[in-house]
Specification:
By secondary structure, the protein is an all-alpha fold. It has one domain. It has 4 helices and no strands.
Length: 63
């Protein structure tokens, strides 16, 4: 695994866990999640790290 890949997975996992805490996962969420994982491929490590370490995760879920 590349560093980027590892970070990406961690961030996605974090988002998923937050989402599960807040509501039952819906089908919509799974497609959203899928799209998000594709989108993350284009982000740099530093951007992923920022997302991972910050409150951006809430923005991603609730916007």
């Amino acid at each position: 695994h590349s560093q980027q890949e590892k970070l990406r997975l961690q961030v996605l996992l974090q988002i998923e866990q937050k989402h599960r805490q807040n509501q039952k996962p819906s089908r919509d969420f799974f497609s959203f999640f899928h799209n998000l994982s594709h989108f993350f491929i284009f982000l740099s490590n530093s951007t992923l790290q920022k997302i991972k370490d910050s409150k951006y995760i809430y923005i991603i879920i609730y916007s």
